[in-house]
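Retry 2 of 3 after timeout on previous attempt. Resubmitting structure tokens to design endpoint.
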């Protein structure tokens, strides 16, 4: 086992860290307050290659490994989880899904723009009655011969109002159950596609989350991904990789909150000395660091398994379950270390606490991760 990062990994870490500090940090509180999408920053991340980190360079990507992706996600999330989830969806769900399961025409037409940041993608699985139960798709795609007719509603869609291309999961043949589900590439400009109001969220307020409505949207046959009935498998395989991205996001939130708490404890005085010299605070910092390191090893292991072609379904579920729990616990403790200052926006940790909660919910709730883990254990 080698726990050292390569020179390339260190370089990508430093680039992501510098970008987060110089480009994301200055306006992060204002964007959170205004629920403002970081359009300028997303464009710059595309120029740096962050929007297609693992995509083959022949499609405009950076050609890096999953460990590099985790490193970038952690560094961005230490400062701005709203920006990092935009990167996560575009990389883990949209680009990965298209590159792995799309045909050559789809890759040339869509992936090349998504990987460079010229276009932005969204992944549309959740519905009002189909969140964790992804088999209960009510959105339908009726086969009309040379095209499908798409009708239904998707909600909680990250990048919902800002994306150019949408990967939409829909039911084609209800009698076949999950084997009657398909995945489609839908363009924003198509007739019948409507973007609903922006959600007013607890956290990650800089990312835009919308309900999407499809009213007799004509989807060309060539925009179906994979064979007929492949949609559910496509969604599950794609989400498995997506968990690594969200686990890395949670890890970054935890690390960022911990660093703020640690640094604050060195300058804040109480009872005649810096509060880090009080055992109550020193032990909090020790516990926070311990849990973060445990989560980091799980996240890195899942990325390593992906890079080495090993089944990472269970490891990614464990990484997301653990890292999201740690993000929530550490961010709460970071607020506590800051005392009253932790309760105001100026010190960032209250935002991190709000951002942390969603990592236990999206791309599979913590309860769903336990289902994945337990099923994997009982199959052995």
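Retry 2 succeeded. Sequence:
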């Amino acid at each position: 086992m080698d726990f050292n990062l390569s020179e390339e990994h260190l370089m990508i870490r430093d680039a992501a860290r510098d970008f987060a500090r110089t480009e994301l940090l200055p306006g992060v509180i204002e964007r959170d307050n205004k629920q403002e999408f970081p359009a300028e920053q997303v464009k710059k991340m595309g120029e740096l290659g962050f929007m297609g980190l693992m995509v083959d360079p022949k499609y405009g990507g950076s050609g890096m490994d999953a460990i590099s992706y985790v490193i970038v996600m952690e560094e961005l999330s230490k400062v701005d989880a709203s920006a990092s989830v935009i990167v996560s969806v575009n990389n883990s769900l949209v680009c990965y899904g298209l590159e792995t399961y799309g045909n050559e025409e789809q890759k040339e037409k869509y992936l090349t723009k998504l990987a460079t940041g010229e276009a932005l993608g969204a992944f549309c699985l959740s519905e009002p009655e189909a969140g964790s139960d992804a088999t209960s798709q009510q959105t339908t795609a009726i086969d009309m011969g040379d095209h499908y007719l798409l009708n239904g509603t998707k909600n909680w869609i990250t990048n919902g109002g800002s994306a150019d291309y949408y990967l939409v999961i829909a039911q084609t043949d209800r009698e076949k159950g999950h084997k009657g589900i398909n995945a489609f590439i839908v363009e924003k400009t198509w007739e019948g596609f409507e973007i609903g109001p922006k959600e007013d969220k607890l956290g990650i307020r800089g990312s835009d989350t919308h309900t999407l409505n499809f009213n007799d949207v004509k989807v060309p046959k060539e925009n179906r991904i994979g064979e007929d009935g492949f949609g559910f498998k496509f969604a599950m395989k794609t989400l498995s990789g997506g968990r690594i991205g969200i686990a890395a996001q949670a890890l970054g939130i935890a690390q960022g909150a911990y660093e703020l708490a640690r640094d604050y404890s060195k300058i804040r005085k109480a009872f005649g000395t810096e509060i880090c010299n009080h055992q109550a605070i020193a032990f909090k910092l020790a516990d926070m660091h311990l849990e973060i390191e445990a989560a980091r090893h799980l996240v890195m292991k899942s990325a390593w398994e992906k890079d080495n072609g090993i089944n990472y379904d269970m490891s990614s579920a464990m990484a997301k379950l653990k890292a999201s729990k740690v993000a929530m616990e550490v961010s709460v403790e970071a607020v506590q270390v800051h005392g009253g200052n932790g309760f105001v926006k100026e010190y960032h940790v209250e935002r991190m606490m709000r951002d942390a909660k969603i990592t236990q919910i999206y791309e599979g709730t913590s309860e769903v991760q336990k289902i994945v883990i337990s099923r994997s254990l009982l199959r052995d």
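Attempt log closed. The longest strand covers residues 147-158.
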